[in-house]
Every structure is written in structure tokens, then in C-alpha cells.
Design brief:
By secondary structure, the chain is α+β, with helices and mostly antiparallel strands. It has one domain. It contains six helices and seven strands, in the order αααβββααββββα. The protein has helices at 4-14, 21-25, 48-51, 77-94, 97-112, 148-157, and strands spanning 56-57, 63-66, 73-74, 114-116, 122-124, 130-131, 135-136. A three-stranded antiparallel beta sheet has the order 1-2-3, covered by helices on one side. A two-stranded antiparallel sheet has the order 4-5. A hairpin with a 5-residue loop joins β4 (114-116) and β5 (122-124).
């Protein structure tokens, strides 16, 4: 059974409006007409509103979502990936150096925040308790993180920028265990 703090957070987000974690998540899903299945170009979702997120950021430019109440402002790896992909799409269309910088700041954050779970798999943990029907205790990770490696692959293939991917002996895992012997090069 959820605690009273859960109901306060939900009521303030849904009934009182204003800025909350919902400000980021409630975007009209829009397919990207520039995305193709033939190459690693623009991402298939535009994430245009997410690229222009009007919420909180840390001093480096990484978005933080405000969950209010005792959770407060937090890094959410899934939101960071979507923000990064939205800025990548805008950069690809406009060649705007600010969008490029925003994309790489967030890709670098994702690279530096991979952690190993109990099975030794690389995951992006959420470092806050999440009250829902049951409470997920920090650190926890989500299967929704499947798009995070797409940020890293785009960072790795974007010209004029060297990105060091996670160790080839510990590949990026997002929702399933990779048993392939083929792994990305890191140099």
C-alpha cells in the first residue's frame, strides 16, 4: 500500500499542475520523418518537446526531473537519454553547435553513470526510491532503458568527437543479457 507521500506527490502533479516530472514525460509522441532503418541517423521519435525541456538542469546541462515531496529533483537516465536524442535530432537537422554540445554532455553523463547490477550486467540505476503500487528501493533500473545504448552509438559515430564506450569485457546491457562474442570497439 503506498504511503501518504505518494498520494501527495501524485495529487500535486496531476491536479495542481505546474512543473513536475510529468512536464517532461507528457509529450505528444511524434514519429521522425527523417529517420530511416538503413543507417544510424536521426532517432525514430522526434522528442522535440523534450529537447526544449524547460525544467531543472545541473551545472553541466544534464536535466533533472522534479518529483516533488521527499523524492525531489533527481537524475532519470531514461529522461536524460530522451533529452539527448531530441537534441541529437535537432543537431542533425540544423547543425546547431549548442544542440551538439547538449547531446554530448548527456551522452557523456550516460557513459559515466553505467553501473554493474548483482548479475554483473551494466545498467543505468535510478538512485531514488520510487513509490508506486509497491516501492522500488534505490538503486533500481528499468527495462525502459533499452534506448540508452542508441545515444552512445550515435555519440560514437558522430564525427570529430572521440567517445570511449564501456569496457568491451562488460558490454552495455539494457533489458536482456548479451551473449554475443562480438562487442563494440572502445578506441
Amino acid at each position: 500500500m503506498p504511503h501518504l507521500s505518494y498520494y501527495r506527490r501524485i495529487l500535486s502533479a496531476y491536479l495542481l499542475g505546474g512543473k513536475s516530472h510529468l512536464t517532461f514525460w507528457h509529450e505528444t509522441p511524434t514519429e521522425n520523418p527523417n529517420a530511416t532503418g538503413r543507417d544510424l541517423g536521426e532517432y525514430y521519435m522526434l522528442f522535440a518537446e523534450k529537447a526544449d525541456y524547460q525544467g531543472f538542469y545541473d551545472s553541466s546541462g544534464v536535466p533533472q526531473l522534479d518529483y516533488h515531496g521527499k523524492i525531489g529533483r533527481q537524475y532519470n537516465p531514461i529522461a536524460i537519454a530522451q533529452y539527448g536524442l531530441g537534441n541529437y535530432n535537432v543537431f542533425r537537422r540544423t547543425v546547431d553547435p549548442q544542440r551538439r554540445r547538449k547531446f554530448f554532455v548527456n551522452a557523456d553523463w550516460l557513459c559515466s553513470h553505467l553501473e554493474q547490477n548483482a548479475l554483473g550486467l551494466s545498467v543505468w540505476n535510478h538512485h531514488f526510491d520510487w513509490e508506486y503500487r509497491d516501492t522500488l528501493r534505490a538503486p533500481w533500473y528499468s527495462a525502459l532503458a533499452w534506448r540508452l545504448p542508441t545515444v552512445l552509438s550515435r555519440a560514437f559515430t558522430t564525427p570529430r568527437r572521440k567517445v570511449v564506450l564501456p569496457s568491451p569485457t562488460n558490454p552495455v546491457i539494457s533489458g536482456s543479457r548479451n551473449t554475443s562474442s562480438r562487442r563494440p570497439r572502445t578506441s
